[in-house]
Write a structure and sequence with these properties.
The chain is mainly α. The chain has five helices and two strands. It has helices at 16-22, 43-47, 54-67, 74-78, 84-90; strands at 36-37, 94-95. The chain is elongated, with a radius of gyration of 15 Å.
């Protein structure tokens, strides 16, 4: 799921003219994004997400080895596991409770 219309720019087959044409007709609702639980997901599941890099997955899993359970996604930014910019994006896609 997209959290902003600006993400359309990342789709290879869409040029800026097409995006400009269709953007006024699109609605983005972040409530429909299915978030991944970082406490229960496997390494492979988390790494399979197109916006989570291998390095980010590795850092998150190494951090989990130390703390056991991640209480909130913000904890990953507060402990320098994710940068401010990375957290701003991944916060839409990760969760810590069901």
């Amino acid at each position: 799921g997209f959290y902003t219309k600006h993400q359309l720019r990342t789709i290879y087959s869409l040029d800026s003219a097409t995006i400009s044409t269709i953007a006024p007709y699109l609605v983005v609702d972040t409530l429909y994004i299915q978030k991944i639980n970082v406490n229960t997901a496997t390494f492979k599941e988390l790494n399979a997400h197109p916006l989570v890099s291998y390095e980010q997955t590795k850092k998150i899993f190494n951090y989990k080895l130390i703390v056991g359970m991640i209480k909130t996604p913000k904890e990953l930014q507060d402990n320098n596991i994710l940068t401010v910019a990375e957290y701003a994006i991944l916060n839409y896609y990760i969760k810590t409770i069901d």
